[in-house]
Design goal:
single chain; alpha/beta; five-stranded parallel sheet; four-stranded mixed sheet; 9 helices; 11 strands; about 45% helix; about 20% strand; elongated; binds guanosine-5'-monophosphate
């Protein structure tokens, strides 16, 4: 009856630091291992303890990053908290064409640039349950100095006010609930009518007519009425 677009969906996920977006996405992938492809960004910031090259980020020097900007390597990039972050162009189109949903985990400025380039991108904002909880999570990470934590908190606070630029907001209080909500949003998006390419009859008109005329389906008086109507058409 309908032919829907087979291409994947471009999904942008943003959240202030400490809202838990990476955990939400990790869990989403765990539950749907074949559906998504998560883009690995490049950054000029130093790796945090435990982070891996090519898994968490591609780590570049400031000069290397600027060279890549000039080469047109990024679909979008930004300067965030004193460091460059950018999404490599390569692979995004290819993965979408193969039907994979592509996830970009990026901050707000980058997200709004993607929205301009790809208006149908699905924009999801992950929100911490409260500012107190956000501070607690930022401190718990223990990967940054107090000064940096305070700076991140201020940025996060500003970012929260930008939530209305997104299509959906999910509060990450209980992880499982948040993941389920993100999953449902993505599923619902697949049913949008603008993903329909064609509406068509999947059965010949004569076959439908025959079906309607079957005795066990329609009683005789109604059949006669249909015959009469058909004659008059
Ligand atoms: P972090 O230093 O905590 O890993 O990342 C800082 C912020 O940069 C996060 O909000 C993260 O989502 C964002 N970010 C990571 N990669 C990219 C990217 O490629 N482009 C943009 N615009 N933001 C990014």
């Amino acid at each position: 009856m309908i032919k829907q677009k087979k291409t994947g969906q471009l999904i942008v996920i943003s959240a202030p630091s400490g809202a838990g977006k990476d955990t939400v996405v990790k869990e989403l992938i765990k539950r749907n291992p074949d559906e998504f492809w998560v883009s690995v960004s490049a950054t000029s910031r130093l790796p945090r303890e435990g982070e891996q090259e090519g898994v968490d980020y591609y780590y570049l020097s400031k000069e290397e990053f600027e060279e890549k900007i000039n080469e047109g390597f990024f679909i979008e990039y930004t300067n965030y908290a004193g460091n460059y972050y950018g999404t490599p162009k390569k692979y995004i189109k290819e993965k979408l064409n193969k039907g994979k949903d592509v996830i970009l985990i990026i901050e707000i400025e980058g997200a709004s640039n993607i929205k301009k380039l790809v208006p149908e991108a699905l924009m999801i904002f992950i929100m911490p349950p409260s500012l107190k909880e956000l501070v607690r999570r930022l401190k718990k990470r223990g990967t940054e100095t107090d000064e940096k934590i305070i700076k991140r908190f201020h940025t996060a606070y500003k970012e929260i006010n930008e939530v209305t630029k997104y299509n959906y907001v999910v509060v990450n209080d209980i992880l499982e609930d948040a993941v389920e909500k993100v999953e449902s949003i993505i599923k619902a998006e697949k049913c949008r009518v603008d993903r329909i390419e064609e509406v068509f009859l999947d059965t010949k008109e004569e076959e439908i007519h025959e079906l309607l005329m079957q005795k066990d389906f329609i009683n005789e008086p109604t059949q006669n009425k249909i015959k009469k109507i058909n004659k008059n058409i």
